[in-house]
Amino acid sequence: MSSESDYTILVVDDDRASHIIVKNLIGKKYNLIHAQEPQQGINILSEKKIDLILSDIHMPGMTGLEFLEAIKKDA
User: Fold this and answer.
1) pTM, whole model, 2 decimals?
2) Which end of the chain has fewer CB atoms surrounding its CB within 10 Å, N or C?
3) Which residues are CB-neighbours of 42 under 8 A, at least 6 positions away?
């Protein structure tokens, strides 16, 4: 049986404060990887096994929904 710390969560958000909040809330229980922009998140997904994605909706360049469509297309 897997423990919580075996799970990796990708947090995609351009707001540094959001990263800090997520880290403080769940950073001790789960492995967190932070991406400042959607393209960085896409690159991380191609390299690492991610169990859960938390994404902001409003980001410059690509919205959170466009990010999800892009990774869905690559899946």
Assistant:
1) 0.89
2) N
3) 67, 70, 71, 74
